[in-house]
Amino acid sequence: MASMAQAQQKPEQLIRDSIDQLMGQIEGRKDYFAEHPDELEALVDKNLEQIADFRYIGASVMGRYFRNATPEQRSRFVDTFRQTLIDTYARGLVTFDYRELRVLEGTGGRYEDQASVDMEVVADDGQVYPVSYTLRQDDGQWKVVNVIVNGINLGLTFRNQFDQAMRNNNRDYDKVISEWAPEVATEELEKGAADSSGQGTAQ
Question: Which helix (H) or strand (E) holds 30?
């Protein structure tokens, strides 16, 4: 039933429901979750599981290296990368001071199975940070496959970091996956991209 309901949802409604559900659980409890990060990560994990296509994202981040990775390495990287996203998202929820999250209307992508949903994060000081979700329809369900925060394309950023790690470690898949710990600081996201050249969706 949940899958059927999700299939009938428009992309922007999927994002809006996800945001409302998560915010409803942490509203007024930021201090508590700051002291109990494991509980917040569990909430974020459950929330993202409903809307994110982790396998697609993981393959996109591995980029050209995905083809030569073993099935076990691919699976292990997806699990590792998923935890990275959860940690980053959870940390941002308790460290960034915002007063409102506004989900805007969605727009179609280049293909029928693609869509984009824009959101605005309004900080306590009134500064507005744009967020853009890229979604892909698979088996009738819309799933998030990339996010651009204040002009910084996270999918592309993580792909470049993976590529650099592979170069630095002589293409040792197991070592790169085991040591994978990319980070995009909140300060970096607040500052935003220096230009718009890197805003293309990582596919």
Answer: helix 30-35
* CA–CA gap between residue 179 and residue 76 (Å, rounded): 12
Can you tell me the distance from the alpha carbon of 169 to that of 159, in angstroms, rounded to the nearest whole number?
15
Residues 93, 101 contacting (CB under 8 angstroms): no
DSSP state of 185: -
Please report, in angstroms and rounded to a whole number, the separation of the first and last CA atoms in the chain. 30
Q: pTM of the predicted model, to two decimals?
A: 0.82
CA distances, 66 to each of 46, 74, 104, 144, 145 (Å): 26, 7, 34, 20, 16
Among 188, 49, 17, 51, CA closest to 133 = 51
pLDDT tens, 64-116?
Answer: 999 999 999 999 999 999 988 888 888 888 888 888 888 987 777 677 889 99
> What token pair was written down for 31?
């201090």
Concatenate the DSSP letters of all residues of 48-112 into one string: HHHHB-HHHHHHHHHGGGTTTS-HHHHHHHHHHHHHHHHHHHHHHHHHS-EEEEEEEEEEE-SST
CB contact set of 75 (below 8 Å; sequence gap of 6+): none
Contact 196, 92 (CB under 8 A): no
8-24: burial string, b at 16+ Cβ within 10 Å, e else: eeebbebbbbbbeebee
Which residues, 6 or more positions from 78, have their beta carbon under 8 angstroms from its beta carbon? 54, 55, 58
